[in-house]
Amino acid sequence: MLSQKDNEALTRVGPGAPMGELMRRYWIPAAFSHQIAKPDCPPIRVKLLGENLVLFRDTEGRVGLLDERCPHRTASMFYGRNEQAGLRCVYHGLKFDVDGSCVDAPCVPQVGEKQQQKIREQLRIKAYPCIERGDVVWTYMGAPEHKPAFPELEWTMVPGSHRYATRHIQECNWLQGLEGGFDATHLTFLHGGDAEKSRKIVATMYEVLPTDFGFVVATGRDPGNGSIMWNINVMLMPFHKVISSIPHAAHVWAPIDDENTMLYSINFHPSRPLTDEDLAREKSFRGIHTENVPGTDCAIRNRANDYLIDRALQASGESFTGMKGLGTQDCAIQESMGPIADRTLEHLLASDAAISKIRRLLLQTLKDHAAGKPLPGMSPESYRVRSARCDAPKGQPIADLIERHVRVETQVAAE
Length: 415
Prior knowledge:
This protein is an alpha+beta fold and 415 residues long. Helix 5 crosses helix 9. It is globular and about 85 Å long.
């Protein structure tokens, strides 16, 4: 059980909320680069951490992320004209560059140049810096003096041929997604019929260790042969998971607002292009990627249609849920808890040990941030990690396994 106060602290992500302010200390994915593929292409709407924004690529190829509201009369900049190195509001013609500066105010031709300059200075629009990595546009929404270097997320550093990424809207709070991602026991049940054979053994050992990048969650399964099958997954602040699969995989739970999340799902290989065989399960929507309504971020199997659950398939035993795909199964259960799960109603069990520890670590990170203490993940090199699966003798310290299997000395640079 979590107190209402702590639940609010962990789930609210808007401006001024403790978790929202913490997340603003990190780079956040805003969109895929192909969504604004060409200079002067149409802008797109973006909502992050409860803020309504507009993303565009200017004439020179630079990317800008602006407040959707024009500072003049609060009209939407989404309808703006993307032209001549700026986004122009169609209401009165004011134009803003990627840095948020007003560079043209044609609606007041009657004033002199000095007054024009003063007006332009007063009409600055809120803008967030952007960077492109891994064919994704990332933004930093925090105080400029705290802006960190972009982290060395391995999947963003490999060539495009080594990576496959999709995204979709998850209709619940970000924490439900993150907790589901690190809940090892559900693999045996929720994904029954789809999970690998090793996952059919229920995990009985749970370790959560804080690190310089976030934390490591290690879950052990005892097959009865004197060794432990360890699944070691890394959480990189503030909302990343690297999945211990082949090829490697990752999730990013980027909060849209308190009640919706943009879930990015990625498969990647560090040293070679992905093959058709690598992606066969994913492109048939049986893996972590969802099948979306064409041209949207909305999953075809969603809450409104009960995820197209097939009760006959469920009854057959071939699928524990009767739902197609690991990603759909995860979203169905996480969204079924409500837009923001009421954790005061929970009755946690021994199998939830990792979830309890994760919550305590996140709450402590909020306290450290409020106290001005150093935060995990501020060093780009700290993200040089991979999740791993390994067998080890009973009693071997988890810290030894982390150093041997999780830390990566060097990573490839993207072409």
